[in-house]
Amino acid sequence: MSDDNGIQLLEFESKLQKIRQQINSKLENQKHIALVLSAVEENISSQSGSASPVAYFVSFLSLLDQSIDADNDTITDANLVATAAYLLDLTLPVIPKALLKTKFAEILVKLAPAITSSDAEAPLIKSAVGSLETLLLAQDINSWNNSALNINPKRGFGGLLEYSLDPRPKVRKRAQDAVHSILANPPPGPSMEHPASAMAADFAIKSLVELINTKPNQKTNKEHSAQLIHSLQLVSSITSANSWPTSKIEHLCDILLEVSKTNDQYLVSSAFKGFEGLFNSMTDEIDSDKFLKVLQVIFDLKPSLNDNHLAVPWIAVVAKGITSYTKVEPLKSVKKIPEVFKILLPFFSAELPEIYISVSQCFISILSEAIPDNFLLLPNNDDVTTEIYEEMDDVITQIAELLTELLNVKYGQATKEIMEVFAMAFTKFRSRSNPDFLEPLAIIGEWRTNEEFEFKEQAEEVIAAAIREVGPETVLGSLPLNLLDSKKAGRAWLLPLLRDNVRFARLGYFVEEFMPLIQEFEKRISSMDSNSVTTKIFQTIVDQVWSLLPHFADLPSDLQQAFTDELAQQLASLLYSNPELRVNICHSLRLLVESNVTFASGALSDDRFLLQQFKIETAQSNVEYLSSKASNILAVLFNVFSQTSPDSRGFVSETIDAYLGISTPQDLESTFNKVSVLLKNALDEESSTPATSQQKGVAKLSVTMMDLVVAMAKYVPESSYNALFSIFTQTVNSSEPLLQKRAYRIISKLTESESGVMALKHFAGDIENVIISSTDSNNLNARAARLQAISSILQIIPENDLFFIPSIMSEIILATKDANEKSRQHAFNVLIEMGKVMAKGGIIHNSKIPGFDANTPDSQASLAEYFTMLSAGLAGGDQHMVSATITAISCIVYEFRETVDTDLLVELASTVNLFLTSNSKEIVRSTIGFVKIASISLPEEIVKPQLRDLLQHLMRWSHEHTGHFKQRVKHIVERLIRRFGFEVIEQNFPEEDKKLLANIRKTKARAKRRQAEEEGESQQRSKKHGNAYDDVLYDSNSDEDDDMDDEGAEQENEDPRRKKKSSQYILESKDSPLDLLNRQSLAHISSTKPSNKSRTVSHAKAFEKNGKLHFSEDAQQDEDPLKTITDGINAYVEAVKSGPVKGQKNKFKFKRGAKAREDDNDDGDDDADELQKPINRGKIGKGSRVSKPKKKFQSRKKF
């Protein structure tokens, strides 16, 4: 027996076992099946004793025969026949195929009445169809081709085809799946096609043709569409099985395209699935000729340019066909793309937007999916031969020529979509777009230079794609900036595009082209008035050019040739002399390192195209080259760091960190020693200098040097660790808070490197002693850094040093009540780290704890011991300490609730709950926090027995309004009700406080009613309009309607069928007539009608690509050079209107309410005043007294 048969038998037995377990099921059908199976098994065991699949098969087939009257074709027992068919469907897959083949006629005769009977219901038919599927799959090629017999497989297959169009969904789906399965598994024979494929195709075509030729009326239209969809689903089942005969492909394509003409999106979708199944089925090279024939048939069915119903689906089918053909024959498909583009090109001239938008998306789809990425690689590669490389060159050239034709006035209405195609072309072909696409790039660049061009944004997307893929050097060769030549059109608008899109470029190009440009502008600026507009424009250009430097430094291809000592010195000089340039220069220096380090580590290893142009070995060599210069660069950066204000050093420290990461150990040691000497000298000098002589707002030199020590901590070599920890020991007790803070940061920084962690483990004992001894000298400002350092130590603490935990326990507990949020958060993290360390176990040497006797015995570390340590704080006399301890216990209980023993949790909960009786509000506030955590997170068996005492103690504070005690207690009661139910809480609730329960119940009921009302209102509001566009359309202001000119009113009254037709307008000046033969003429053609009249327009300009409305201000206002002046005047007028005026006793007061509005309406018309509604102020209150404002709600602190 084969492995497959063994698996099938195991699955069969598993299914029978599930049925046996349903003998007591409440569902009658399941119970009936289990009873029948039990009776069959009893019968088999009484007769033969062995329950083999064949024995089951014979029994189930016999039952099926008994429950049907074959003479009258009627069902005598509906339940029995359904059960027998179901069990037979389970059994047939494990029956030997030889038996099914020889007994085919006998089995089909007994099975047929279950399918053909008019009394058969859906469950019976589904099971019978499954049995018939298994029976037909077992037949060989001779059985299928034997038409002499009256009972043959094709006859049974015909029944499946009939049921594949059944109106019952489950029956139809089961039959279609059976058809697909049979056709996808043809019997072995000389042909790859199934013997029944032609029969299935004829049946599907006949059904479709009959339905298409039938013209439904209004009543039967819905049913007719459903039948069409069912037939198309059958087509998809056949095509996806790769069984549609080649001779019938043309007829099928014709029918599918005819169906696609409808406006019913479901029909169109089903037709597309038919095409998709046809394309997806042809996945082997043997299907290549078949595929070409399908494509040719589709091309022959090309519709007219403006056939909206057929053109759009036809274009979509073409796109799917070409992309699918690529999977079968990649090279042949790529070579066919220019031919396809030539066929599709005229559709860009269609008048209907739906058509030219569809063809643009088709182009984009073909470019992105039908051209394999590896075909764009250089030759001498496993995937790319010289032949493929040359073929791709020819294809790219042909595509560029075809797309360049689109930049013609003939296709002006589709300019936006054409731009999107060009952007995709540059993105796909990358550097191989050069030189074929430079001509269209120059044309698009000239259009963008024209300020009247309508599609500037789309043109910039094309140019941006070109900058990314072919590089700034090539783009600027076709579209020069012309910033210094006043006779040529300047392209300063290119600078932001360069800034956002330059990558992997030549750093030398920036040095050669942009550095001289900067020097020339700076020379001109120096000779001009600093306040003139021209000076500010020139300075803006200089700033924009400098902003390009970081992007040219992002993985440059010529780093070692361009980043010379001369350039490094020039940048260093600028860092000192021009503080405004420090951000850009530091960012550039950092990117030089980070981009090469990242690339060398294989971050972009999946980009094979880039790897061919820039080797990983080159990046590694670049890192070594920068490492040789790191020492000098760090010296400059250290000086700049010391000259920069502390709140603006972030970018400098990031750059320092990058160069420290690539420095050699020798350079690091030397640099660290120099910084250490400077730190020592600064500390000595500051200790002898009075504090009053320090300049206000200027960071001390010692603090700056400590910042550098912290930055270097994780990089210094092992030989410098003694000096590093010496600095830590010396500065951790400093009276200067900033030095203390940085001393603790040394410890935290060391955990970021493996060598640093090893050093911490080596010096752990000394560090722990220093931290314990410096507890009293710790400054409040340095507490957060100290706690973070303690957390770092706990992560690597040795098992012998567990005494460190109780030594600092009280400090950590008190830190949970610190005023600084960071300190509190770090304190909670330290408590959790302590718990994790204690949970691991070990020995606590209590004699080493400060203040303990030397003879104190050791104890075993555990979570229970940890809770004992924490609980010691509850016995303190200071209420602040008790409150902090309860807060700490709350945190630890929540964190370790699943690992702590239940008895310990019960004891802790009962102990802490007693503090609800305290008179200290600080203690009670923390205790209420613990109760909230316990009631939510602890197991019910712990909380439920304590409910009565807990609620009794809680209710004491339910009447206390200060500190939000009442609100917190109410919230806890609500959570308890949610967890245990209202009845349980009511039983344990104090009788005198049950008013609170009643209030909670009323509040919840009121909230439910309000929510129901709000949902009803929102549903009513949602019925008003479907989307924001409808709101703009139907809620337009009357002003807009009034402002419409006569011509606009006439356009409204036009035939609505003509509205889809695109309108193009020529923007022509009086002095220069438009030359339509010039390519630049397209820049003067707009889809918006030019108008001299000012009119109010909606701010809902257009839809974004994600479907959202895009709101923007009027373009004319954006381009108005006097905008800032008018804004200033308006601001002044507004200030005068709403400004203070003198009242009684010459006191200033501000206008409010009606007075302010009256001033606003002074310059309005009288009608507006008459229409203004009076303001209903309402009553203030009793005796016209103003009620006391409500107190602001204060947020609760966690724990």
Which runs of at least 5 residues are low in confidence (pLDDT < 50)? 1022-1062, 1091-1139, 1150-1199
Topology, number of strands: 10
Estimated structural class: mainly alpha
Bin the helical content.
55-70%
The fraction of residues assigned to DSSP E strands is under 5%
Summarize the biggest pleated sheet: 2 strands, antiparallel
Largest beta sheet: what is the strand line-up?
A: 1-2
Q: What general outline do the C-alpha atoms trace?
A: extended
Oligomer: single chain
Number of helices: 58
**Overall residue-averaged pLDDT value:** 81
Radius of gyration, taken over Cα atoms and rounded to an integer in Å: 42 Å
Distance between the termini: 67 Å
Biased composition (Basic residues): 1144-1154, 1179-1199
Biased composition (Polar residues): 1084-1097
Region (Disordered): 1006-1065, 1084-1120, 1140-1199
Organism: Cyberlindnera jadinii (strain ATCC 18201 / CBS 1600 / BCRC 20928 / JCM 3617 / NBRC 0987 / NRRL Y-1542) (Torula yeast)
3D structure, described in words:
This protein has 1199 residues and is an all-alpha fold. The chain has 58 helices and 10 strands. Among the domains are: 1-130, no CATH class; 139-281; 502-663, no CATH class. The strands form 5 sheets. It has a two-stranded antiparallel ribbon with strand order 1-2. The longest helix has 29 residues, at 994-1022. Belongs to the RRP12 family. Residues 1006-1065, 1084-1120, 1140-1199 are annotated as: Disordered. Residues 24-243 form the RRP12 N-terminal HEAT domain. Residues 352-644 form the RRP12 HEAT domain.
